[in-house]
Structure to design on (367 residues):
């Protein structure tokens, strides 16, 4: 690995910070609802939502979440079900569980006030180094660098950093370099523009494939561009291996009982996929699903189109089977779960592909 040196004498930190701050002020993203605030609750909420989720999606979830939970106290006092129901569709549900735990810790340990520096923030559940840095920089002007996946890509290209970022030690090195690139004695406004600039550059120009170097504010000092090696960075050897798994889902609907329609849903166990969310009963094979049903129910079973769903480490293939029966029904004791009125479906946290499968009923629940 080539050693990358970033020091004040090289002039690189000064030039980088100045170029980035000026560019952000002229061309960076503005007007997002979580910008122009120094409220740690809002910044934290947006940062957690934006991890692994696109801005366009977060734009609809963020105001809804704030409407329901306007303060960290309100979020801490909510039930886990309320939080999961509002998070449903954003994916990566451990974020919602950590969000709730973190709000409770802020209230219980800090009287409802977030710690005012990155070190204190990082001690809270679910707040990693980069999120802590973002909150501290945006809300308190702390001179600390964010280094999420986008920023790693920008900095590894800027510096032609060829350390393998699959290794924690190399990530640490890049973090140190990120710290060395920070503006000297920045005002809080400069720290905000710099931090936002790093995010914006990684999200809009220095993107994974086909970066727009010709529009980039730091093209004149980018070492990868200078040596025509942009596509070599970032270096990361370990690919995520996805396991393929098939699930058979029983969509059991009871109609006509006391004029109500109900669906049988079970809460997913923790830890595991979709922990805490509601889902139709899951079986590892079609035979297992059939075995779980009373013989007289089996002939009413309809095969629906299979759906694929990608998770970080798993590729799920969902095979839904629909069974509509007149009630009242006695569900076999071995099948865990509960009846949920179709009109109450919206109040339940449902994983995104289950929402798709139940879309016709969710539509009716809204009318
Ligand atoms: Fe990224 Fe290109 Fe800018 Fe270098 S010049 S930081 S590779 S967009």
């Amino acid at each position: 690995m080539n050693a990358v040196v970033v020091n004040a004498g090289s002039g690189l930190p000064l030039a980088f910070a100045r170029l980035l701050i000026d560019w952000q002020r002229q061309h960076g993203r503005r007007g997002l609802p979580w910008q122009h605030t120094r409220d740690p609750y809002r910044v934290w909420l947006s940062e957690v939502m934006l991890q692994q989720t696109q801005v366009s999606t977060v734009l609809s979830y963020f105001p809804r979440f704030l409407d329901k939970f306007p303060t960290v106290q309100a979020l801490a006092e909510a039930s886990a079900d309320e939080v999961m129901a509002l998070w449903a569709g954003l994916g990566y549900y451990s974020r919602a569980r950590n969000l709730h735990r973190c709000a409770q810790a802020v209230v219980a340990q800090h009287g409802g006030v977030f710690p005012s520096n990155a070190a204190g923030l990082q001690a809270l559940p679910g707040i990693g180094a980069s999120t802590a840095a973002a909150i501290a920089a945006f809300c308190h002007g702390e001179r600390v660098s964010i280094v999420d996946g986008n920023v790693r890509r920008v900095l590894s290209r800027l510096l032609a950093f060829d350390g393998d970022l699959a290794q924690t030690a190399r990530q640490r090195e890049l973090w140190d370099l990120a710290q060395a690139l920070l503006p000297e004695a920045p005002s809080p406004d400069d720290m905000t523009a710099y931090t936002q600039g790093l995010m914006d550059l990684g999200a809009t120009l220095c993107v994974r494939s086909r970066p727009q170097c010709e529009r980039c504010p730091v093209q004149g000092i980018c070492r990868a561009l200078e040596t025509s090696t942009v596509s070599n960075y970032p270096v990361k050897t370990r690919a995520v291996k996805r396991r393929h798994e098939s699930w058979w889902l029983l969509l059991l609907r009871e109609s006509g009982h006391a004029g109500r329609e109900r669906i049988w849903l079970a809460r997913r166990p923790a830890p595991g996929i979709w922990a805490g969310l509601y889902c139709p009963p899951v079986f590892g094979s079609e035979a297992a699903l059939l075995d779980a049903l009373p013989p007289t129910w089996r002939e009413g079973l309809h095969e629906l189109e299979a759906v694929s769903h990608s998770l970080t480490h798993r590729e799920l293939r969902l095979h839904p089977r629909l069974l509509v029966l007149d009630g009242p029904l006695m569900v076999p004791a071995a099948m865990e779960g509960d009846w949920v009125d179709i009109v109450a479906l919206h109040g339940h946290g449902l994983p995104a592909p289950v929402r798709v499968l139940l879309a016709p009923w969710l539509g009716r629940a809204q009318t």
In short: DSSP finds 16 helices and eight strands in the chain.
